[in-house]
Write a structure and sequence with these properties.
The chain is α/β, with parallel strands linked by helices. It has helices spanning 14-26, 38-47, 64-74, 89-97, 110-139, 156-168, 185-196, 212-220, 237-241, 256-268, 294-300, 305-311, 327-343, 352-360, 366-380, 394-398, 413-427, 432-439, 443-453; strands spanning 7-10, 32-35, 52-55, 80-84, 102-105, 175-178, 202-206, 221-222, 234-235, 245-249, 270-271, 280-281, 285-290, 314-317. It folds into four domains: 7-132, 3-Layer(aba) Sandwich (Rossmann fold), CATH 3.40.50.2300; 140-319, 3-Layer(aba) Sandwich (Rossmann fold), CATH 3.40.50; 323-398, Helicase, Ruva Protein, domain 3; 413-453.
Length: 455
């Protein structure tokens, strides 16, 4: 198990400290801080971030109850487990009133200790996430905006997603990202990587179509001689991800046996390479994505409920492009620039008409579809009007870039004429003769129009 913040163990007996420390490490909780001096423990509590605390009551100098009272005042969010040889109802009640999460009598059973610490760490994680999410939503700000720089958006919905991902980034639990094909689920996974461990590996794999053997070999690797043709050992993607991020795309396509193996990886934080007898630990943060309705699949029996509930601890839905039309202009400009650079051309400026018509199109292929249309259009563009869209004859659907576009509330005839005159004058640089020729009227007639409109 991986936790971001350590477990502080406070006891004046060195043997007890070592015993608790070894017990936790053997269970996978290896981020611990041992303290034999109660006064030093107070300093650690004040200065270091902690995930949980195991506290003895009977210590010289500063008692455990005094430390517990200090924690309640200075760090009320810190879960404290009292482990003491003084077993009495009065003592237990006093500790609970001071905010202790659990009260364990020495000698403490190892399973009871580990279970209590895991509960404390989970409570601590949830409190941190709730606090972080509340701050993000109330303050409407991002602490790490650079983690999302690779996602072009002007959508308030996407900003809320960024805030949520930032809030849960400290968690070691898996993140489930779902949404239609082409919405940018891998971009969200890469944002998680930048938030959690930007200097560690990011390993991505599409698991669609992988049978159980290929899935196991791809993720977990194999030992030499594990099967016919295995002439050398092979590292799996879990080992390659190390303590970074492992991104599994199209998770809804996994078969039953592969789902069981993934569940073991998530629950036990360990995996078994093909041909190996001893499981290996995994420290990778797992992020999964799908365009399937996993909840419906669990009702149908095609996806395991226990795996689904394990995956949905942190769940994010990326909205389709039709639900965030304000992103169309941003993405269109980005893709035009990318396509122009790819073809060695100058980037044309999209007209408001083109943007308006694109915003009205539902884009079943989402962002990926828009990008494909822009690159296809840029390949045949040789200057002049620029159009892109889902039909081969794009001008038929979207029209030329200069086709008239009207707002939702139609203007009057007079308002339309005056707008057309202003546009002609702007394009002609104020030269009435040129503007009149474009409008198909005489220069005196144009002059009269300008005076009527106050221009």
């Amino acid at each position: 198990m991986i936790q971001t913040f350590p477990v502080l163990i406070v006891d004046d007996e060195a043997d007890i400290l070592n015993s608790f420390d070894l017990c936790l490490r053997a269970s996978g909780i290896d981020n611990t801080v041992c303290c034999q001096n109660p006064a030093e423990a107070l300093r650690i509590i004040d200065e270091r971030p902690l995930g949980a605390m195991i506290l003895d009551l009977s210590m010289p100098g500063v008692t455990g109850q005094e430390i517990l009272a200090h924690v309640r005042e200075a760090r009320p969010e810190l879960p404290v487990i009292v482990a003491t040889g003084v077993e009495s109802i009065e003592s237990a009640v006093a500790c609970m009133k001071l905010g202790a999460l659990d009260y364990l009598a020495k000698p403490v059973e190892e399973e009871r200790l580990v279970a209590s610490v895991r509960t404390a760490l989970e409570m601590s994680r949830l409190r941190r996430e709730n606090t972080s999410l509340r701050q993000c939503l109330v303050l409407d700000r991002l602490t790490r905006p650079e983690a999302f720089e690779h996602i072009a958006t002007d959508s308030p919905k996407m900003r809320q997603i960024f805030q949520y991902l930032e809030a849960v980034s400290a968690s070691s639990e898996p993140i489930l990202i779902f949404g239609e094909t082409g919405v940018g689920k891998e971009l969200a996974a890469r944002a998680v990587h930048k938030l959690t461990c930007p200097r560690k590996p990011f390993v991505a794999v599409n698991v669609a179509g992988l049978d159980d053997v290929v899935f196991s070999d791809t993720l977990f690797g194999h030992r030499k001689g594990a099967f016919t043709g295995a002439v050398a050992a092979r590292k799996g993607l879990v080992e390659q991800a190390a303590d970074g991020v492992l991104f599994l795309d199209e998770i809804g396509d996994l078969g039953e046996s592969s789902q069981v193996k993934l569940l073991r990886l998530l629950q036990e934080r360990e995996y078994l390479p093909l041909g190996a007898d001893v499981p290996r630990p995994s420290e990778a943060r797992v992020v999964v994505a799908t365009n399937c309705d996993l909840e419906a699949m669990t009702r149908e029996g095609s996806f395991r409920k226990d795996l689904y509930y394990r995956l949905r601890t942190h769940m994010v839905r990326i909205p389709p492009l039709r639900e965030r039309p304000e992103d169309i202009p941003v993405l269109l400009e980005l893709f035009i620039a990318e396509a122009a650079a790819s073809f060695g051309k100058d980037a044309p400026k999209p007209s408001r008409c083109l943007v308006s018509r694109l915003r009205a199109y539902p884009f079943p292929g989402n962002v990926r579809e828009l990008r494909a249309y822009v690159f296809d259009a840029m390949g045949s563009w040789n200057g002049g009007d620029f159009s892109c869209g889902p039909d081969n004859d794009t001008s038929e659907l979207f029209g030329a870039a200069e086709e008239l576009c009207f707002p939702a509330a139609l203007p009057t005839i007079e308002e339309t004429v005056q707008a057309l005159v202003r546009e002609a004058m702007n394009r002609a640089g104020g030269v009435q003769t040129l503007a009149a020729r474009w409008l198909g009227i005489s220069q005196p007639a144009l002059s009269k129009r300008l005076k009527k409109g106050g221009s």
